[in-house]
Amino acid sequence: MKIIKSIKGMKDILPKKSFIWQYIENKIKIILYKYSYLEIRTPIIEKTKLFNISLGKTTDLINKEMYTFKDKKNNSLTLRPENTTSIIRCILENNIFFKNKKQKFWYFGPMFRYENTQNGRYRQFYQFGVETFNMSGPDIDSEIILITNRIFNILGIKKYITLEINTLGNKKSRIIYANILFKYLKKYKNYLNKNIFYKLYKNPLRLLDNKKNNIKYIFNNTPKIISCIDIDSIKHFEYLKNILNFTNINYKINTNLVRGLDYYSRTVFEWTTIFLGSQNTICAGGRYDYLIKYLIGKNIPAIGFAIGIERIILLLEKIKKLPINIKFKINILFIIISNEKYLKINSIKIAEKIRNELPNLILKINFCNKSLKKQLSEANNKGIYIILIYGINEQKKNKITIKYLYKRKKQNLLKLKNLIKELKLIFYHESNYFNYW
Question: Which of these three, 318, 345, 362, is where a domain ends?
Fold first, then answer.
């Protein structure tokens, strides 16, 4: 029978790799909570209309990359290609804005885009993201950049990535610049392919991040957006740069750094690396003060970012800093050395009582499938500290054997009540031996 394989661009995360994912996820979550950001979760499926309104019908994301389908009632639904729009829908639907109250959220989960798959680009990919609302100053812009800086520092990749920043000004600034850019690029229309030419007429700003080597020279000499920026946005950007300078955040200004979507304004930024080829963006963020107006007709200041987890892992692999020694740590191994039915039932009952009394410990039961000698040898190799043994002899005496593998101490035969006291003493007080408490 032919094995059914996973869908192209959607990868399994096997147990050994999932430890690395959990390690990275937990590091990021701790930082976000320390900055007082709260988690928000949204469905992975939304009404297609939501993305059509927010992302615009002229983008590649809408035209080519969304997973869209009809349900049994002929409603058009879409697997979320990004999560900012879903979060805005969520806070509007649940009335979370609370009369202009400041809001700070984080999220983690899969996104879906029908893209050409390559290393670092998948059709199901995972993002950690932050979204903030009702804060318009450069101070919050700097905070989310500082958060990303701290995340990358904790993960050990800070010196392998570069922060690039730019300002897009207000809506009027973008319109003025788009017209200037259009006139400049139109002169080179004979050098542009059909797809690029299409973008030129729909949204010329989206061409600035073009990576095709044969026409890079055209875009390297484009007029710069800074000449079109309004005074208030210039002041906003200067204030942001001052904060970054005073907090020792290194950055470079990339005047070609833009967002193709019309709702972006003022601050935009990316963390990039030279180690991942064309998929060089690890994190992207920016201010989107005009997005919510598309949905409710009211301007609400907002800024956020998204980090690609697969690219973080690829970078860690590339620079040989992937935490491959992370292992599933078993504190107690419970060995049952008899196949007798009631002995097994009783041993499971004992194990559950121990788990109830010591809920933070990981206790694994080995049902009688190997010799005791072999199981003890494996326990030593896996760094297990305590072994409990339960067999016919223990059942008759209504006791459990405890064997110490972390120090020279004779094994003992204890009643369950005394055993639990002994385990609490070991795992809660002998900190010299156990550094994970």
Answer: 318
